[in-house]
Every structure is written in structure tokens, then in C-alpha cells.
Amino acid sequence: MKKGRENTPHIGIFGRRNNGKSSLINALAGQDIAIVSEHAGTTTDPVKKSFEITGFGPVILIDTAGIDDTGDLGNKRVEKSLKTLDIIDLGILVLNNNNWGDYEDMLINRFRDTDTPYIIVQTKSDLLEPSVSFIKKVNSITGEEIISFSALTKENYEDLIKFIKLKIPEHALKTQTMLGDIIKHGDIVLMITPIDVEAPEGRIILPQVQAIRDILDNDAIAIVLKEREIDTFLQTTAIKPALAITDSQVFVKADASVPADIPLTSFSIALARMKGDFENYLKGTPKISDLQDGDRVLMLESCTHHVSCDDIGRVKIARWINNYTGKKIHFDIVAGLDSIPRQISDYALVIQCGGCMITRKQLHNRLRPVIEAGIPVTNYGMAIAWVQGIYSRAIAPFLGEPTDGTEYL
Prior knowledge:
Layout: E1 10-15, H1 21-29, E2 47-53, E3 57-63, H2 71-83, E4 90-95, H3 102-113, E5 118-122, H4 132-142, E6 146-148, H5 157-167, E7 188-192, H6 206-217, E8 221-225, H7 230-237, E9 243-246, H8 251-257, E10 264-266, H9 267-275, H10 278-284, E11 296-300, H11 312-325, E12 330-334, E13 349-352, H12 360-372, E14 377-379, H13 380-387, H14 391-399
Parallel strand pairs: 1-3, 1-4, 4-5, 5-6, 7-8, 7-9, 9-10, 11-12, 11-13, 13-14
Antiparallel strand pairs: 2-3
Helix pairs in contact: 11-13, 13-14
């Protein structure tokens, strides 16, 4: 399940079967968009529903199966529901009848493990209000208040909206920018975009499209050209761009052609700063130099695509790292959000792609167990810049430092 526009908050509704999750969704939407039934288990798989919450704004609500579903099929439904924690910005735990047990404990732990903010709602309050002892019990376990709510009477609707506003992370409410804090109105940005076997027929790759849109959104000017046109363009136009941004695989050519006083970075590094764990990338990238014979490196691609004979992630980076280190390194490739084939501790380094096809939340959750295990992490573009000797220049635009060859270690 992929998240859509990044500035549309995603809210997941969780709870046991027949606890009133679908009724809560209908109440928030102000219309019947989820099936309500007396029979437990009506909702089977997570379903996205886009609408506007009165008093809050547009959201994407994810209706999930009951966390107490049973049997082999039920367990699979529960796992699908829990996977949505990787993409949501807020969880709503729905309770009923003053009931709290192992299912709720498990879900709270999963919220905490994925750094997912949450609120707790007891529905059907027109039938039974949460008792004082139950409120104290839940607060002692979670540190959170219970919002008593009735889909029938809309009791405490305004309080529920207030808590949603309070708990939604700020990054979920605004469009993140790739370059907006390093370019300004009227700046010229030179985009160096090689057209090779990996470029889709008749199109350019998604990070380049995202960069163009970001440049335009920030009222700057994008000039797009291939790597072999850089010298001619700069010489014949006498234009001095405020920034040059290149595909990482032509870093060497771009570095040679773009004058040293023009900041230079790559699409992948810009994405790494916008979506990835940039601080840990900065710490982890130099560890490439410490790789030894027999070490194993994990390459994380966040999408699946046709693999060419000279694929950047599966072929070129591995070759460049082996040549740079002079060591025999083993590489594992994992595409999409598939499971990692080995124990995290088996890896000396993890290299994550830019993540253009996934959300910031997905990417950070993907890297969390790696970072917690103390394994160094880096990014495709930053790794390429390191082994090609232009790392300092490539990250300097985002650190506010001069492009004079200073090393960042």
C-alpha cells in the first residue's frame, strides 16, 4: 500500500472486530463510506478512503481489519493491517465496552515501535461511557486520555477533531521541499539528466520530475540538459547557475564541467536530505572506506523496476565500491519493501536508494532496525560521491559550507 500526496495526512483506524471502527469513519466523513454491520469481521483488508473531515481538512483514512481476527486468513488480515503503520501519520485505537487486553497492548507497542502518534477513542458512548477505573487503567498503560465518542449522537466530535489536530505531526500537514531552502525566487538551477538505458522511453526518471516541480514551486528556473552539453551551454550562454544538480552516475563528468564556485549535488542526495535519515547518512558514508574482504553490504531499492545490464544499484555501485576499496565485497539486493534475507548483524553497511517511490515514514521505518543495530547507513548518491572523490562538494549545498574541497568526515 503506497501513500499518496505527502501533504495529505494518513490516519489509520485500528481496533477489535465490531468495536465501531467503520461507524467512526462514517461519522468523521459525514457520510456512509464504510460498511457498518452487526457481524464481526465485515472489514477484511485495509481500505483507503479520501475525504475531508469537517473542522480539520482533507485526509486519507485507512479502515483496517479487526486486530482480534482469527484463523490463518484472519492472521494474514491482521498482519496487513499492522503493515499500514509504516505509512500512516496518526493511529486511532478504537475501544468498546471498557475492554482492554492483550490485543490493545500489542497495538500500543507497535505504535511505539514505529514512532506512530495515536489517540484512543471509546465508541458507542451513547450505550456505555468509559468508567473512571477504566480511564485510569488505560492512562496508566499508555499515558493517553480516552476520548468518549458516539457515532450516533456525535458526542465529543469537536474534542476528537481537537486531538487529531494536536497529534498529527507537522511534516504531515505541509509539502516537503527538495531544494526550497537552498534556492530562491529567480535562481537558475542546472539539471544534468543523462538519457541512458535506465531512462523510461519518452520520459525522464521520477527524481528528475520531482526536482523540476520543486524548482518551479519555489519560483526558480530549471534548465535541463544532458551531461555532454554542460560545457557548451556554460561557455555560449555565460549563465552562472545558482545550483547544479546531476544524476549521480555522471558525477565525475558533472564535477569536471561545472565550475567549483557553482554548488553541485545530485538528485539522489537531495532526496536523501528530504526523505531519508540524512544525519545518519553523513555518519555512515565514510564507513565505506573501512570495508574489508568478505564484508556484506545490503542495497535497499524502494521500488521494483526492469533491471538493465548496467543497473545503477545492482551493478555500478557494487563495481565502484569494489574498485575503490580494493576488497571483495558481497552485495545483497532487496527491492520494494520485501523482507531482508539475513540478520541485520550480517551486514557491514546498508545503502538505501533515494526513495522517490515511497514516503518519508516508510523510508525511516525501513532503516530504523538497521540504525538501532548500529549498522552504518548511506544513500546511493552519497556512496557514489564518496567513492568518486567528490563527496564534500556534493553534500556542501545542504550544509551551508563552501565548495572549496573541505572534507566532511
